[in-house]
Amino acid sequence: MTPQHTEEYDVVVVGGGPAGENAADYAIRGSDRTAAIVEAELVGGECSYWACMPSKALLRPLDVLDAARHLQGIRGPLEPDPAGLLARRDTWVSGYDDRGQVEWAEGAGISVVRGRGRLAGERTVEVTAPDGSTRTLRARQAVVLATGSAPVVPPPLRDIGAWGSRDVTGVTEVPARLAVVGGGVVACEAARWMAALGSEVTLLVRGDRVLPRAESFVSDLVVAGLEASGVTVRLSTGTSGASRDDVRDTGVGRIHGGPVTLRLDGSVELEVDEVLVATGRRPVTDVGLESAGLTADDVAGRTHGGALPDWLLSVGDVNGVAPLTHWGKHQARLVGRLLTARAEGRPDPSVPEDVPVPQVVFTDPQVAWVGPTAAQAREAGLSVETRDAAYTSASGAALLRDDATGQARLVVEQGTGRLLGATFVGPDVAELLHSATVAVTGRLDVETLGHAVPSYPTASEVWLRLLEAEPATDEV
Ligand SMILES: Cc1cc2nc3c(=O)[nH]c(=O)nc-3n(C[C@H](O)[C@H](O)[C@H](O)COP(=O)(O)OP(=O)(O)OC[C@H]3O[C@@H](n4cnc5c(N)ncnc54)[C@H](O)[C@@H]3O)c2cc1C
Ligand SMILES: NC(=O)c1ccc[n+]([C@@H]2O[C@H](COP(=O)([O-])OP(=O)(O)OC[C@H]3O[C@@H](n4cnc5c(N)ncnc54)[C@H](O)[C@@H]3O)[C@@H](O)[C@H]2O)c1
């Protein structure tokens, strides 16, 4: 039998993605306390190798290309270089080697324990290494769950070896015809880079718009941009069945067999060479919670407290609050500060309420929003008004591209004039978003914001147009 070792750390973090790495770092930073990260695959997590980093490495050259193609004064032909795009992706994922991240962790005083971790009762994590040997880690202060999320594959698409987000970010073999099922962030972003790599892409969207969690005006602009990139977008099209005679395990990013026939809404058929399923993700919670008398519901929606004992916390996608890297890292900083305060016998640090969640979607045009949409604010029982402006009403925005287009909206609380949310669609709005995030977090009102003067001629002048816009209170 393989011998077992028990090792003690102050904090044991299960999962070494961006949330877990930051939780471990902030929990021991500047102290002589100890932390271990238990990681089953690569330190850096989904984000570094199969999600944020490869996708944005592929998309950034396309942003520059799309802008350059629409700027008088630049001569073509301007074309994507598929081999160059994939090489750039490989650079950004460090060739799927996590040595750099392990060095960072060790430099920060964090031990990296390779293997799959499971809770084995209070403060205890059992780790099974790739060679089958086991180690037991004991956390003097706390265990932090940071096990991330996994894709959800709807039943009709389960047995055809369909691509998931790892395949499309790790693509090495470009299918001639690709169907993308889903209308969310992964689907819209991936459709764009796969079209640039040479696939004939059909986006199959069950609902009547893409990015359904964004303001309703966003979808038309994103669909127009996808179509301009050569993507066929089919709205209100469910995928009810799929068949593939020849399913092969060819590896991540390769075509997984012969052609696939999709049944759309039960009757129409579509034949493609590969299918990307991008229909959402679920938290990874099969980590022995029952050994501590807990269930996945006890982790859902919270980092600590509730039914969770004081020795167990969670950060990142696993708690499902907002499955975004920056949100997981924010939670990790808060959890790290909380654990530090408790270790030093200080009261729990206070945390402001209503901290808004920002999100950027790297389509063309880009989409960026923070806080609730008007509809979400109303559903939450708030009385709100909206203020709308064309993005190009700011001459700085119109200067960015000859074909610039876009729209912006503020969601403002009636009575107080407080800014609750904002959405921008257009070229380069990703970097504009933080102005709105600061304003919402700072609980600023529209009167005060009128004295924040944007430089001329920048896209930020859209703020002036928004603040001067006629408030609307109807449902749009
Ligand atoms: C294609 C794609 C693009 C994305 N782009 C963006 C973006 O641009 N911006 C953004 O903010 N978000 C983006 N996201 C979302 C982002 O990837 C996640 O929100 C983020 O990775 C969550 O971080 P995490 O640390 O919670 O989990 P993960 O990054 O999933 O890391 C969890 C880690 O835990 C490990 N693990 C799991 N179970 C165990 C176990 N039992 N024992 C040991 N280790 C375990 C896993 O191997 C993994 O390394 C994207 C997602 C996808 C799919
Ligand atoms: N730029 C970014 O910040 C970025 C990029 C990619 C992913 N992410 C995050 O990763 C997470 C996962 O992204 P995602 O796009 O997979 O999920 P998502 O939740 O954003 O979108 C899933 C989409 O699939 C649709 N869908 C669900 N079930 C379906 C079915 N059976 N048939 C057809 N369509 C179905 C939904 O209506 C929805 O439009 C999200 O939280 C997202 O925010 C962020």
TrEMBL record:
It comes from the Bacteria. GO terms for molecular function: dihydrolipoyl dehydrogenase (NADH) activity. Keywords: FAD, Flavoprotein, NAD, Oxidoreductase. Its EC number is 1.8.1.4. It holds the Pfam family Pyr_redox_dim. Its cofactor is FAD. Residues 9-297 form the FAD/NAD(P)-binding domain. InterPro entries: Class-I_Pyr_Nuc-Dis_Oxidored (IPR050151), FAD/NAD-bd_sf (IPR036188), FAD/NAD-binding_dom (IPR023753), FAD/NAD-linked_Rdtase_dimer_sf (IPR016156), Pyr_nuc-diS_OxRdtase (IPR001100), Pyr_nucl-diS_OxRdtase_dimer (IPR004099). Residues 357-463 form the Pyridine nucleotide-disulphide oxidoreductase dimerisation domain. Belongs to the class-I pyridine nucleotide-disulfide oxidoreductase family. This is Dihydrolipoamide dehydrogenase. It comes from Nocardioides marmoribigeumensis. The lineage of its organism: Bacteria, Bacillati, Actinomycetota, Actinomycetes, Propionibacteriales.
